[in-house]
């Protein structure tokens, strides 16, 4: 049940109406949990019944971490934390990457291996990252003891399920506010803007990007046009979904993070990733990059860390080699910026303008790896541009 279906619109209108007009304040969280489960059921996601077991494990591990912190048992606390992370990451790898790993094994062994018919749970890339954040922040004392009900509201909150943004537990749960006439119209305006981005702008660009699905049929100029059209299509599509989620959350009384902030005026690759898919970029920064040492351990370590986190970024988007190469492409761009240009500290307006132009074209060219169906198609696309 995606945002761009009438099914979702009617479901959400009914949710908001019942939530504010009928459900008493003390039962509103229960109602959100029920509607989250109903959302999965209507979407045909019966696999969520099994994933509910992961919810139980994550909450139980969180309680253990609280317990071992209180009783001053650091080794048991760390063991519980690692167990929880392995359960979450293992679930993500199994559902999303099993067949990719089988394909890698096939290429190494030189023989065909059986592929599993795995049904991927809706939103698994988002809720597993939220679970990792949840366990990590409990471990480091950033989340205080709370009820299972609050955890399920966080886990089952369906407006952010399909396309994020990636929530942070403590900020999300504490953000609740009663709906006023002003906040109602504010949230509604955000939702309308999201649908405008999606249906009016992004969908109208789809015909211009079709060459990227079959680059062999494209000419040099049609391929270039498709790549630039895809740049804007992807932004308005993803930003549109994010705005619908943000506005929908607003209408239910909660606040979720901003996901885009004028990324096409970024003057360097680092600034671009601070403006594009911000909830994921900040998550990777806080839960991977900083833990690896960030840029504090010398030039070589910085380059390694940047390329590694971008590889994670790419594989998060999809289990394909072209996503990984797209991410490494950006990782190299970020590494060059950190090692060379960041140290120059140039404040000149003309230099910044050149940086905006360069970054825009650098990002656009990178979509050749992201928008196509395989790595061979990616290189075919680039060949059409540069070799014909």
Q: What number of domains?
A: 2
Distance between the termini: 43 Å
Could you estimate the helical fraction of the residues in percent? 55-70%
Low-confidence stretches: none
Strand content: under 5%
Count the beta strands: 0
Mean pLDDT, rounded to whole units?
A: 89
Query: Helical segment tally?
Result: 15
Run of helices and strands? HHHHHHHHHHHHHHH
- Describe the global form: globular
The biggest sheet, with number of strands, parallel, antiparallel or mixed sense and barrel status, is:
none
What would you report as the Rg, rounded to the nearest angstrom?
22 Å
Class of secondary structure makeup:
mainly alpha
Present the secondary structure layout.
Elements: H1 6-21, H2 28-42, H3 48-70, H4 74-109, H5 124-139, H6 148-156, H7 169-173, H8 181-202, H9 220-251, H10 269-275, H11 278-289, H12 299-317, H13 321-344, H14 349-370, H15 375-386
Give a brief description:
The chain has 388 residues and is mainly α. It is 70% helix and 0% strand. The chain folds into two domains: 6-174, no CATH class; 184-386, no CATH class.
Mind explaining what this structure looks like?
- By secondary structure, this protein is mostly helical.
- It folds into 2 domains: 6-174, no CATH class; 184-386, no CATH class.
- The chain is built from 15 helices and no strands.
- The longest helix is centred in the N-terminal third of the chain and has 36 residues, at 74-109.
- The two termini are 43 Å apart.
- The model has no long low-confidence stretch (mean pLDDT 89).
């Amino acid at each position: 049940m995606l945002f761009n279906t009438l099914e979702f619109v009617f479901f959400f209108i009914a949710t908001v109406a019942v939530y504010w007009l009928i459900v008493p304040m003390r039962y509103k969280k229960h109602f959100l949990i029920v509607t989250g489960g109903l959302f999965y059921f209507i979407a045909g996601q019966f696999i969520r019944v099994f994933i509910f077991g992961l919810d139980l494990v994550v909450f139980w591990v969180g309680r253990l971490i609280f317990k071992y912190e209180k009783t001053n048992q650091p080794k048991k606390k760390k063991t519980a934390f690692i167990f929880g992370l392995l359960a979450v990451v293992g679930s993500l790898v199994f559902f999303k990457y099993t067949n990719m790993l089988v394909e890698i094994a096939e290429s190494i062994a030189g023989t065909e291996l059986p592929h599993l018919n795995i049904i991927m749970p809706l939103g698994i890339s988002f809720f597993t990252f939220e679970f990792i954040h949840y366990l990590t922040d409990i471990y480091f004392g950033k989340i205080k003891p709370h009820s299972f009900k609050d955890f399920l509201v966080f886990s089952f909150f369906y407006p952010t399920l399909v396309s994020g943004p990636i929530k942070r537990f403590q900020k999300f749960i504490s953000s609740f506010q009663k709906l006023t006439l002003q906040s109602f119209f504010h949230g509604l305006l955000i939702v309308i803007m999201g649908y405008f981005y999606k249906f009016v702008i992004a969908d109208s660009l789809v015909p211009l990007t079709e060459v990227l699905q079959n680059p062999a049929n494209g000419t040099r100029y049609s391929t270039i046009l498709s790549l630039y059209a895809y740049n804007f299509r992807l932004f308005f599509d993803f930003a549109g979904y994010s705005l619908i989620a943000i506005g929908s959350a607003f209408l239910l009384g909660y606040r979720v993070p901003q996901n885009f902030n004028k990324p096409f005026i970024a003057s360097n690759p680092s600034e671009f990733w601070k403006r594009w898919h911000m909830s994921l970029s900040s998550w990777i920064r806080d839960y991977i990059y900083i833990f690896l040492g960030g840029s504090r351990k010398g030039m070589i370590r910085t380059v390694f860390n940047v390329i590694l986190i971008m590889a994670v970024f790419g594989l998060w988007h999809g289990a394909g080699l072209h996503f990984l190469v797209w991410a490494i492409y950006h990782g190299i761009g970020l590494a060059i910026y950190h090692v060379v240009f960041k140290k120059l500290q140039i404040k000149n307006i003309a230099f910044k303008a050149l940086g905006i132009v360069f970054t825009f074209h650098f990002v656009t060219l990178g979509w050749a790896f992201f928008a196509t169906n395989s790595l061979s198609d990616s290189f075919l696309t680039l060949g059409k541009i540069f070799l014909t």
